[in-house]
Amino acid sequence: MADLRAMATELGFTDVATWIASGNLLFRSALPEAEVKRLLEARLADYAGKAVPVFVRSGAEMAAIVAADPFP
């Protein structure tokens, strides 16, 4: 997870944090979602030596998921 945080920081993201050992990455960026996805996928592919799919969720999307309380 330290490598993932370092990669995100190198890409210019701020307030970078990871969530346990899940591969979830929390950060802030002013870039459009598509650009964030492209940058992360490219950097992870360089690191892993193969394609690594990335899902990007905005803060508003995450708040909606929490509000829906899928696991009461």
User: Number of helix segments?
Assistant: 3
Low-confidence stretches: none
Mean pLDDT: 93
Structural class: alpha+beta
Radius of gyration: 13 Å
Name the helicity range: 40-55%
Strand content: 15-25%
The count of β-strands is 2
- Give the overall shape, derived from the CA principal axes: globular
Separation of the first and last Cα atoms: 28 Å
The secondary-structure element order is HEEHH
The biggest beta sheet is recorded as: 2 strands, antiparallel
Spatial ordering of strands, largest sheet: 1-2
Question: How does this model look, in words?
Answer:
This protein has a two-stranded antiparallel sheet. The chain has three helices and two strands. The radius of gyration is 13 Å and the shape is globular. It is α+β, with helices and mostly antiparallel strands and 72 residues long. Helix content is 49%, strand content 15%.
Question: Main attributes?
Answer:
72 residues; alpha+beta; two-stranded antiparallel ribbon; 3 helices
Write the layout of secondary structure elements.
Blueprint lengths: L1 H9 L3 E6 L4 E5 L4 H16 L10 H10 L4
Antiparallel strand pairs: 1-2
In short:
This protein is of the alpha+beta class. The chain has helices spanning 2-10, 33-48, 59-68; strands spanning 14-19, 24-28.
